[in-house]
Amino acid sequence: MQLLAESNGRLVSREKIEQRLWGKDVFVDAEHGINTAIGKIRQALGDDPDAPRFVQTVQRKGYRFIADVSSFPTVLANGSPEGARGPARESQRNAVSPIPPSAAIPGPGEKRTSRRRTVLAVAAAAALLAWPTYKLALSRTAHSTPGAPVIRSIAVLPLANLSGDSADEYFADGMTDELITNLAKVSSLRVISRTSVMRYRDPHKSAPEIARELGVDALIEGTVLRTDGKVRITAQLINGATDRHLWAEEYRRDARDVLTLQNEIARIIAGSVNARLTAQEQSALSLQRPVDPDVEDLCWKGVYFLSKTTIPDFKHAETYFDQMVQAEPSSARAWTGIAMANHYRGMFGDPSALPRAKAVAQDDSLAEAHAELAMLSFVYDWNIPKAEEEFQRAFALAPRNYSRTHVYYALMLAHIGRADEALAEIERARHLDPLSPFTAVAAGNVYYCARQYDDSIRVLKFALELDPAHAWAHHRLGMSWEFHGDYQKAREEFRLASEPDDAAALRGIHRLKQAYESGGKSGYWHESLAIALEGPKRGASGRRGGSTEIARIYMHLGDRERAIAELEKAYAVRDLDLNWWIRVHPEFDSIRSDPRVVKLLQDLNGPATS
Questions:
Q1: Cβ–Cβ under 8 Å, residues 204 and 215
Q2: What whole-number distance in Å separates Cα of residue 209 and Cα of residue 287?
Q3: Model confidence band, residue 330 (pLDDT cutoffs 50, 70, 90)
């Protein structure tokens, strides 16, 4: 700061700053150290790098101090310049000043100081700012920052899109997702998953509130701007308990180097919070990853649509990943994206997409690919040993922070009757993705399989608080109300799970209402049977009308023989619901010891449970 102020508006080169701060014989990461020092000066002065009033950046050369020193802004009692524009978020405006009370700043009763005392205050601020920067630069080589708060968990809030064009939102989301993915490679950190943080795109909450809701020690927030083949990213690390800024940085790179930059940012953040990096993690975050910006754009558009919850969105995602494969046939991320898009289509009611999902989920290098292949091996192939093998491979590649693997594994464990393990696994997933509707619905499914019915209803209601239109949540909640005998609530949930223009489904729900009003419980289940037998494509998964669903209805009607016959038919036509529910549906408890059902369970490659 003193060096800039003394320059009287002349350019101060980065080399000169490096020499003044560290000398010639001290090895430090000078680029990071200078950027951090300038960032802290701007933070202390409330300066904006895009519309500077104090420190102007001269690209690739250095900096100028452009304010008139003779009319230097007044310093107030809180250590901030009077009239300076602070950060946009209210909690940041209330953040503790980085200048301690011992600096030469006005006392509580003083509003203005003389020019001499102002200059002394600025000089003291500069000294105090430079020392932590020097310490940080030295410490990064050893990944240790003495005296820093203990940070073991982080959430990356959505990076703000500064382009002014909402059509570029997918790019900002892609940059957020990439930073989350890279930080998630650090096994000593718990990193909150994308689904939970995206609801804080336009937060009206303080950092401590957000950190408390997500259960983390620190937050990363920032901005991204892409223009003329260049990308600028700003990032800052915020103490979740105090709202105090711990670290801030700005990066500018060619668009071809944006993934390399994301590795660098993740590595610096990990070092700033004293995270322990294994040799493998250090290597992964040091990779140079040049990309074709146009091809990478296709990936981010695909990821954007994967985060949605409708079959048309998943088809859009598949289209973008297909285009990416045409440009880069060996792209592991593209093939994994295609697998995920088709798997999601299958989960949300389009089982015809599952064969392609399995066919392309074969990459050996990505945890995501192994997680998809594991779940498809269980759901589509009915091959539990293969699924277990793929899950363990996924965990080996991403041992802690990929929440979707934990969700999938919890679901498989729950549906093969390993309830205690499933409950532990779904809690790990919820710890990583606490505000994800998908994870909450999966938890409801796991609790239902574990016979914790009240917990299942509670967490499904929570999922609907997060996403009131989540069809899977409504359907699972309807099943729970059916089991409890509350058929009015069940009908309402099935109605909400249906598409508004699905006339056949809505007519069926109306028929259930009339049947219950005229015939009570028996009338409800007889009409359910009639609707299921009328349903399209007997044996199709995900629809009322499959043989497993018909078997469940027969059990409610007390017809064991027809129920068992339908289960055998479900096996013959490969109704995917059979492997999903036969071990755990409470309706099947009384027939699970029947020799015919025992044989079905053995053929399904899973243990019979009672």
A1: no
A2: 35
A3: confident
- The DSSP annotation for 237-273 comes to EEETTT--EEEEEEEEEEGGGHHHHHHHHHHHHHHHT
pTM tops 0.70? yes
- 502's CB contacts (< 8 A; 6+ apart) are none
Work out the average pLDDT over 220-242.
Answer: 91
What is the CATH number that goes with domain 2-140? 1.10.10.10
In angstroms, the CA 162 to CA 472 distance is 35
Give domain limits for the chain: 2-140, 153-291
Helix (H, G, I), strand (E, B) or coil at 505: helix
Nearest CA-CA partner of 391 in 381, 378, 427? 378
Element (DSSP H or E) covering residue 224: strand 218-227
DSSP 161: E
Of 583, 93, 541, nearest in space to 345 by CA? 541
Reported CATH class of domain 153-291: alpha beta
Comparing C-alpha atoms, which of 218, 149, 215 is closest to residue 183?
A: 218
Q: Per-residue pLDDT tens for 579-597?
A: 999 999 999 999 999 999 9
Contact 40, 98 (CB under 8 A): yes
- CA-angle at 147, arms to 141 and 149, nearest 5°: 100
Q: Of 45, 80, 37, whose CA–CA distance to 66 is shortest? A: 45
> Which residues have CB under 8 Å from 76's CB, separation 6+?
82, 106, 111
Cα–Cα distance measured from residue 511 to residue 485, given in angstroms and rounded to the nearest whole number: 17
How far is the C-alpha of 520 from the C-alpha of 513, rounded, in Å? Answer: 10
Q: Is 597 helix (H, G, I), strand (E, B) or coil?
A: helix
Polymer length in residues for the chain: 610
Contact 524, 531 (CB under 8 A): no
Helix (H, G, I), strand (E, B) or coil at 412: helix
Q: H-helix or E-strand containing 153?
A: strand 153-156
CA 285 → CA 168, 289, 300, 546, distances in Å?
26, 10, 20, 48
Half-sphere exposure for 325 (CA within 13 Å, toward CB): 16
Residue (of 285, 229, 220) closest to 253 by Cα position: 229
Which stretch of 50-64, 199-213, 285-299 has the lowest confidence by average pLDDT? 50-64
CA 16 remoteness from chain centre: 42
Residue 50, both tokens:
């895009």
**Which residue, chain included where needed, has tokens 């109704």?**
575
DSSP code of residue 235: E
290: left (phi over 0), alpha (psi -120 to 50) or beta: beta
- Non-local (6+) Cβ contacts of 255 within 8 A are 226, 229, 230, 231, 293
Buried b (16+ CB within 10 A) or exposed e, 23-48: eeeeebbbebbbbbbbbbbbbbbbbe
How far out from the chain centre does Cα 166 lie?
A: 21
Q: Using CA atoms, how far apart are residues 527 and 511, in angstroms rounded to an integer?
A: 7
Tell me which of 62-76, 222-236, 377-391, 573-587 is least confident: 62-76
CA angle 505, 510, 512 (to 5 degrees): 95
8 Å CB contact between 42 and 57: no
Lookup: tokens for 248: 């801030």
Over 60: is that where the pLDDT of 528 sits? yes
